[in-house]
Amino acid sequence: MKETEKIYKISTLYLLSKVDVPLTTNRLSFFLLKDDYTDYFTFQQNLGELLADGYISDSTVHGKTLYSITGEGRNVLRLLSGEISQSMKEDIDLYIKENKFSIHEDYSVRSKYYQFGLDQYISNLCIEENGTTILEMNVTSSTEASAKRICSNWKSASEDLYPLLIGRLLK
Predict the structure, then answer these.
(1) Residue 3 pLDDT
(2) I need a surface site. Which of 88, 123, 152, 167 has the fewest CB within 10 A?
(3) What is the Cα–Cα distance from 96 to 8, expressed in whole angstroms?
(4) What are the φ/ψ torsions at residue 117 (nearest 5 degrees)?
(5) Cα 139 from chain centroid?
């Protein structure tokens, strides 16, 4: 393994260890690509190797792949974190600080749909705050297109609907 690739893998583990929510591919790649730390092909290859080695895990939520560091990844990071320069650690910490709200927003408002019966679809809509589900609801529709539209509109609509719903319920 090339030394630079090893550094980028450790940097990816460091980044994932510093956040309390899984990160999308875009969030991970943006940091490493924005300052030309690596190219996209190498990033994807390293990500695949980290997955294959069990240092990170992935899950798919509403078409987005989310990555988290595993216990094994944390062990490797403890052993090798000294190989990342202090300036790179500071860059990662600053990136997280500057993007904390949008990083959490990627994960805290979620939606997915599935088929239920012959002509019924359920859109599962969820809002999480600090890892705790504060609202979850299911909306039934008769077409897949409607279920998709409900899910795709949930992220922007939830900002208006949540306070409205809570306000009405607490009246």
Answers:
(1) 73
(2) 167
(3) 17
(4) 85, -175
(5) 24
Residue 6: per-residue pLDDT: 86
Q: How many CB atoms lie within 10 A of CB 8?
A: 21
**CATH architecture of residue range(s) 3-106:** Orthogonal Bundle (1.10)
**Cβ-count burial of 161 within 10 angstroms (0-12 exposed, 13-18 middle, 19+ buried)?**
middle
Query: What residue segments make up the domains of the chain, in order of their start?
Result: 3-106, 108-169
pLDDT value of residue 34: 73
Name 141's bridge partners: 121
CA–CA distance, 120 with 167 (Å, rounded to integer) = 30
pTM of the model: 0.63
> What is the predicted pLDDT for the residue at 29?
83
Provide the token pair at 64.
């987005």
As a whole number of Å, the end-to-end CA separation of the chain is: 62
Which regions of the chain are under pLDDT 50? none
Q: Say how far apart CA 4 and CA 87 lie, in whole Å.
A: 15
Whole-number pLDDT of residue 157: 85
Top CATH class of 108-169 equals: alpha beta
DSSP-assigned beta bridge partners for residue 132: 129
| Rounded Cα distance, 73 and 22, in Å | 14
In the numeric block, which tokens belong to residue 134?
């504060």
